[in-house]
Amino acid sequence: MRFVQKLRHALIPPKGIRRRLDYFRLRVMRIGGSPHAVAAGLAIGVVSAWTPFLGLHIAFAIPLAYLLGGSMVAAALGTTFANPITCPIIWPLTWKIGEVMMGQSAAGHDHLDLGALFAHLDVSQLWRPVLEPMLIGSLPPGVACGVVIYAVTYFGIRSFRNRRLHRLTARAVSPKDTANGVRA
User: Fold this and answer.
1) What is the pLDDT of residues 92-122, one digit of tens each?
2) Could you read off the pLDDT of 16-43 as tens digits, one per residue?
């Protein structure tokens, strides 16, 4: 396979993005636990994904899900919200929101050499101009997404499980079997 084909295959699944999203949805629906636990875990994972600490999202989400009674598996799945497609949108958005919330302007950061700061991993110099605004700016959209994800997931799981229960109940006592005197 050529490099371009490999890259295209990695970014766009061969069977389509819709199929991959449906698979993700079914994975979430089949997680064990109450609808509240699964929805809370997924919401916590999504909120964690909005923070600028790439690589530590799961480390934040799982203990928080445990403390709040959410599903730790769902929390880990929720952290996949931060991915190569969404991070280029999330990071500048959270940085700008954080600057507005802190009353700062981007003009003061023109002299920053982000490449050098990242190359030397100088977090102390990176904290004030970049990470602090991103962390503060991640709270409003993260909480808003978390609330929406919680509601959609909670009602979706409840509906999914009710439909499944009705299907299984109907299959267990089908009219054809009761007419013949056979019980399942």
Assistant:
1) 899 889 988 888 765 555 555 556 666 666 6
2) 777 777 777 777 777 878 999 999 999 9
Pairwise CA distance, residues 157 & 54, whole Å: 29
Dist CA 169 CA 113 (whole Å)? 64
- DSSP string of 14-61? TT-HHHHHHHHHHHHHT-SS-HHHHHHHHHHHHHHHTSS-TT-HHHHH
Which pair of structure tokens corresponds to residue 159?
């509906």
Structure pTM? 0.74
Domain boundaries, the chain: 32-162
Q: In whole angstroms, what is the distance from residue 164 CA to residue 171 CA? A: 10
Distances (CA, A) of 112 to 44, 99, 158: 33, 15, 50
Helix, strand, or coil (residue 113):
coil
